[in-house]
Amino acid sequence: MASTTIHVLLLLLMPPLLLGVINKTKAFFGGRVGPPLLQLYYDILKLMRKGIVLSDTTTWIFIAGPIITLAAVVAAGLLVPFGQIQAPITFTGDLILFAYLFGLARFLTTTAALDTGSSFEGMGAAREVTFACFSEPAVFFAFLVLAKVSGSLTLSDMLRASVDASVMGSAPLILIAIGLFVVLLAENCRIPVDDPNTHLELTMIHEVMVLDHSGPLLGVILYTASLKLFVLGAVLLHVLTPSYLSTDWLDWPLFVAGMLGLAVAVGIVESVMARLQMRHVPYLLVFALISCGFGFLLLIR
Amino acid sequence: MDNYLNGILVIVLVLNLLSLGTSRINTIIKAVSAQGALLGIIPFVVHQHLTLPAVLVAVMAIALKGIVIPLIMVHALREAQIKREIEPMIGLLPSIILGAVATAFSLLFASQLPLASQHVGKLLVPTSIATVFTGFIILITRYKALTQVVGYLVLENGIYIFGMLLIESMPLIVELGALLDLFVGIFVICIITNHINQAFSSMDTRRLVTLKE
Fold it and tell me: Cβ(B89)–Cβ(B141) under 8 Å?
């Protein structure tokens, strides 16, 4: 029970901190002081106290979009084990639910964007869905590899299985870790794919879909975005370090440290790379897909 | 040990795809030099008891492929003032897919080969075949002289990986000779590139066939 409580608390409270770490890292590389570490918490609190402006063309979907997206991502977060402790919800085949909860989140985000009736937001929705076509199969290939390595169809067991020292153990995991990292960057609209700070209209993907949301709805969207980074980051962290120390009291601090390290890594990638041209993004995602596919091929050959 | 070896080889495969997928010649050179340096580590990982020839080959490979050759090429690139492969013969996405198909083919093909039992679990053979294929694809589909040099380098990396299978029985002089050939070849090509660039406006290999004395 205690571990479930810690799990839920971590899931709900920690995500905005990751974005703070990323921003601090970017500021460090740029030689700036940067926003405070807790800036996103302040932003969300500020937005929560504001009113909402709704366009006449929108329907209930516009409001339901961010809320259901948040619910879907939280549910996905309950399926992923943090550290060595079992996730709160586990059952055989929950990897499918995990992948499609993200699918549902994406569907509602894009539908809410289309609901505004703005052609500009429709463009963003089209881009989001196009790129998802590449990243979703990559995630499934990664899960196939994990299922094959661990011999289990439960997300908790798949992610916590310590890799035996067999010959084929580590090579596929390296491949899917590379693939999943690219997917993490793409899904969370980080720099090589999409710049979360940009408002250069022709190249936006995610930002363009949430332009019309305001007040609490925008706060929910910002929070969901950080939550998404947290959940996908937890999956990637498990792939990178399949077996932790087995002492319980060290496990949570190690997990938190690992997540912060991952955030620093994302910040470094964002600092040293420029964002890709829009037409080059599919190359990167195909690369991730191929990388995960090779991991699978290596295992089954 | 095999885990580390396979890890290195998998990263080599990823670098293959990266060098196929980028249009910036600078990035390709960096990728290939990282690949060469990684390959230099392999002898330390493969053998429990290191022999002097193996260490010598490894150090030479790291120094030449990882440091010297990339420096020469970056220098030539700066002199020639080109930045990217404008129009490869087939686009970047098709060439990534071609490379992926070649890699998949070599992974499947290598498992059919009758290998010595100590090589079966390792990825040495498929990686070497895939890297040679990648080198071929780069050599064939790119027009800039410098990118073709990179293709040649990738090709040699593939052959080097294959040589790792035989490193205990192969004379040192063969491997060092190959490295020297490679070094001189690239040295000469980079100088020639430079001179061509000074004398003519273009370094497109399609036009180089019309060069006369």
Answer: yes
For residue A223, the distance in angstroms to the closest alpha carbon of chain B comes to: 34
H or E element, residue B125: helix B124-141
Q: Which residue has the higher pLDDT, B68 or B81?
A: B68
Q: Bridge partners of B84?
A: B24
**CA of A244 vs chain B CAs: smallest distance (Å):** 18
A243: nearest Cα among A173, A298, A187, A194: A173
Partner B contacted by A301 (CB < 8 A): yes
- Whether A170 has its CB under 8 Å from any CB of chain B: the answer is yes
Q: Is A122 exposed, middle or buried (0-12, 13-18, 19+ CB in 10 A)?
A: middle
Q: Got the DSSP string for B127-196?
A: HHHHHHHHHHHHHHH--BHHHHHHHHHHHHHHHHHHHHHTTTTS-HHHHHHHHHHHHHHHHHHHHHHHHH
A279 touching B, CB under 8 A? no
Write out pLDDT tens, residues B107-160: 888 888 887 777 777 788 999 999 999 999 998 888 877 888 888 889 989 988
Non-local CB neighbours of B209 within 8 Å, separated by 6+ positions: none
pTM of the model: 0.88
Question: Can you read off the two tokens belonging to residue A182?
Answer: 């690219």
Question: What are B204's strand-pairing partners?
Answer: B144
Tokens of A134: 């590449």
Extract the tokens encoding A98. Answer: 């995990």
